[in-house]
């Protein structure tokens, strides 16, 4: 549904996106994560034809997005900051969207307005950041998109509305088979709703996989011994990282989990348990591998 | 649907009208109070004055009613054929302001980004903005022309002073002037990235031919050269400059200005197609013209400072010394270069 091929983008002479290749399957939710300044917003703006890439192309539903009104009529885009005409009332901006998008659904719009409890007569300039985010989401759902691209959509929303928005996105996919790409710093949220994850760092996609694969490939083992940590375990090639607090050792293991467990069992551990890594931990581990300073990661 | 040659889009037209309509009404009001009201009350004022003369004949011993009437007719004739009162300001500034609202403000507020992601082509966005911009600035003239013509129908006495034909000619001439200045303004709308730079550069380049010629003339006089070359240049080519549309209609080559305006509209559209929205908010939309811009500002500042420094002497090279004028050129060039670079740098888009 979404194919990004060999995309390069420069801003102010600096290469912000470097050979980006992404494939998002129809009816799936793709989460784009990365530290601040990694190129997430630039990538999303290139995907929705705001920025013109210097190289490569964005194909949506088999067609290049560039100046393609037909494809854009089924493309919803929620930006990180909602740019609306401040003097417009909500009803007027809705009228504008209704005129622009041929598949606009009035019933859906009314339903979502009731859900978010927004006042149609209110002017955009009088809305809070959270209300603007709600408005952007409801407008882009009312256009009945085939593809929905969201850049930090829950930023500025309170926890209840955040939950509502995430549920709406999941509902959108299950009810209408919409393809969704979502960028967020809230990895916990992405973990709950995404099928696939892409990690972008310094303009490059450094990891792209399904949540399932990511979690099964990288696991964490918590282990404790009566004595010191045996040398054989310390030097095991499948153990990527060991953090020790007293006699408790936490190990990040990539592949061959069973082999590692067998090795550990040989030394009669007093504690041995396997823990799934959260997306946040995988992200931090992966970014650490890329030489990223953990303290700088805004999560 | 796809066979339509011109991409009129009701949704875009409504949106653009909504954000600019206030300007149209304000200008219509200004035009009414500064021109139309005077025109349509001519007969009434004439009658009041006649009564005054009748009441106090001793005050108006030499009063000639026919002469008075003729002077009023001539005054109206002048206001219909030449730009008088506040009208030139409206004709110069309303196209610049409407273009700044429709392009500069949308760039500054980043709403162009939203439009770009919506199902509109760039051609549609540009075309509908140009249509609304022109309607917006012509409408006040149309409304006032309609009022003046309706007044003719209501008041028979007014028909002695002006005719519907005169009103139509006045409207047509100003609609032409607005078209020419709007096309010029749209060119700068596509070249600049902020409201401020758009307004400032449009105005500077609008008066540039006269301003630059004046600067060159002053500098030539400092160095003791004749100015006849500049005068003859302006006499010959002055009518072809955009600024000249403010002149009498019988003195300017109308066909040239219409063709030139169409060429500017096409150039604006082509430049708009190449606008990169990541440069919205920057002084100039195109990095390639930054050096030209800096050199232009530095060159003009250099000429200006040469003149200013010459005032430290007696106004010419023989009394102030060539070194002080040359120093003025250097200071002006460096200052102009710095100001131009600073204005570009301060608005530089962040990656």
Question: How does this model look, in words?
Answer:
The complex is a heterodimer of chains A (299) and B (351). Chain A is an alpha/beta fold. Chain A is built from 11 helices and 14 strands. Chain A has helices at residues 40-47, 69-72, 90-100, 106-116, 129-142, 159-176, 187-193, 211-217, 231-234, 257-265, 279-289; strands spanning 2-11, 14-24, 29-33, 55-60, 63-64, 75-78, 147-151, 179-183, 196-201, 204-210, 218-224, 239-245, 248-254, 271-276. In chain A, helix 4 (106-116) runs antiparallel to helix 5. The radius of gyration of chain A is 22 Å and the shape is elongated. Chain B has 2 domains: 2-212 and 229-279, no CATH class; 286-351. The two termini of chain B are 40 Å apart. The mean pLDDT of chain B is 90. Helices cover 74% and strands 0% of the residues of chain B. Chain B is mainly α and 351 residues long. Chain B is flat and about 70 Å long. The longest helix of chain B has 33 residues, at 122-154.
Low-pLDDT stretches of chain B: none
The end-to-end distance of chain A, rounded to whole angstroms, is 29 Å
Number of domains of chain B: 2
Share in β-strands of chain B = under 5%
Tell me the Rg of chain A in angstroms: 22 Å
Report the order of strands and helices of chain A: EEEHEEHEHHHEHEHEEHEHEEHEH
**Radius of gyration over C-alpha positions of chain B, nearest whole angstrom:** 25 Å
Oligomer: heterodimer
* Largest Cβ-defined interface: A-B, 33 and 26 residues
Form type of chain A: elongated
Q: What structural category characterises the helix and strand content of chain A?
A: alpha/beta
What is the average per-residue confidence, as pLDDT of chain B, rounded to a whole number? 90
- Quickly count the helices of chain A: 11
Main beta sheet of chain A: 6 strands, mixed
């Amino acid at each position: 549904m979404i194919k990004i091929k060999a995309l390069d983008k420069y801003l102010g002479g600096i290469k912000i996106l470097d050979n980006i290749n992404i494939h998002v399957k129809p009816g799936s939710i793709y989460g784009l994560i990365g530290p601040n300044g990694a190129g997430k917003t630039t990538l999303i703006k290139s995907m929705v034809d705001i920025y013109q890439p210097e190289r490569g192309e964005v194909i949506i539903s088999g067609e290049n997005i560039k100046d393609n009104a037909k494809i854009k009529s089924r493309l919803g885009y929620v930006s990180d900051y909602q740019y609306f005409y401040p003097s417009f009332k909500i009803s007027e901006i809705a009228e504008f969207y209704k005129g622009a998008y041929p598949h606009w659904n009035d019933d859906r719009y009314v339903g979502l307005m009731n859900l978010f409890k927004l006042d149609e007569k209110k002017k955009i300039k009088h809305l809070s950041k959270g209300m603007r985010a709600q408005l952007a989401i409801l407008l882009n759902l009312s256009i009945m998109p085939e593809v929905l691209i969201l850049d930090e959509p829950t930023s500025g929303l309170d926890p209840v509305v955040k939950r509502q928005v995430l549920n709406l996105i999941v509902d959108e996919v299950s009810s209408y088979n919409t393809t969704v790409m979502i960028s967020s710093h809230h990895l916990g949220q992405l973990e709950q709703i995404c099928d696939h994850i892409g990690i972008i760092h310094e303009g490059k996609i450094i990891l792209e996989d399904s949540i399932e694969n990511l979690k099964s490939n990288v696991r964490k083992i918590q282990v404790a011994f009566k004595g010191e940590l045996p040398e054989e375990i310390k030097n095991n090639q499948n153990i990527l990282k060991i953090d020790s607090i007293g006699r408790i050792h936490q190990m990040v293991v990539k592949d061959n989990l069973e082999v590692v467990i067998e090795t550990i069992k040989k030394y009669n551990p007093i504690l041995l348990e396997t823990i799934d890594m959260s997306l946040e931990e995988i992200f931090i581990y992966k970014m650490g591998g890329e030489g990223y300073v953990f303290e700088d990661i805004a999560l | 649907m796809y066979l339509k040659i011109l991409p009129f889009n009701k949704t875009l037209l409504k949106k653009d009208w909504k954000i600019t309509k206030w300007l149209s009404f304000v200008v219509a009001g200004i035009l009414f109070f500064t021109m139309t009201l005077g025109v349509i009350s001519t007969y009434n004022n004439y009658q009041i004055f006649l009564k005054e003369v009748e009441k106090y004949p001793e005050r108006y011993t030499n009063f000639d009613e026919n002469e008075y009437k003729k002077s009023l007719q001539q005054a109206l004739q002048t206001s219909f054929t030449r730009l008088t009162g506040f009208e030139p300001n409206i004709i110069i500034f309303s196209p610049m302001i409407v273009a700044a609202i429709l392009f500069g403000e949308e760039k500054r507020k980043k709403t162009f980004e939203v439009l770009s992601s919506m199902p509109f082509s760039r051609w549609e966005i540009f075309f509908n903005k140009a249509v609304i911009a022109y309607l917006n600035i012509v409408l006040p003239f149309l409304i006032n022309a309609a009022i003046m013509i309706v007044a003719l129908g209501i008041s028979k006495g007014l028909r002695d002073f002006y005719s519907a034909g005169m009103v139509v000619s006045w409207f047509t001439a100003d609609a032409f002037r607005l078209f020419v200045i709007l096309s010029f303004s749209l060119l700068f709308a596509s070249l600049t990235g902020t409201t401020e730079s758009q307004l400032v550069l449009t105005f500077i380049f609008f008066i540039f031919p006269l301003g630059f010629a004046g600067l060159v003339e002053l500098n030539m006089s400092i160095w003791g050269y004749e100015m006849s070359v500049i005068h003859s240049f302006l006499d010959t080519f002055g009518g072809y400059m955009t600024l000249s549309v403010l002149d009498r209609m019988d003195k300017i080559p109308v066909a040239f200005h219409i063709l030139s305006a169409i060429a500017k509209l096409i150039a604006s559209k082509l430049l708009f197609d190449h606008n990169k929205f990541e440069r919205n908010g920057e002084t100039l939309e195109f990095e390639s013209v930054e050096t030209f811009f800096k050199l232009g500002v530095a060159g003009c500042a250099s000429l200006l400072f040469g003149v200013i420094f010459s005032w430290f002497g007696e106004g010419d090279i023989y009394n102030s010394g060539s070194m002080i004028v040359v120093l003025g050129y250097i200071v002006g060039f460096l200052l102009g270069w710095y100001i131009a670079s600073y204005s570009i740098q301060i608005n530089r888009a962040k990656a």
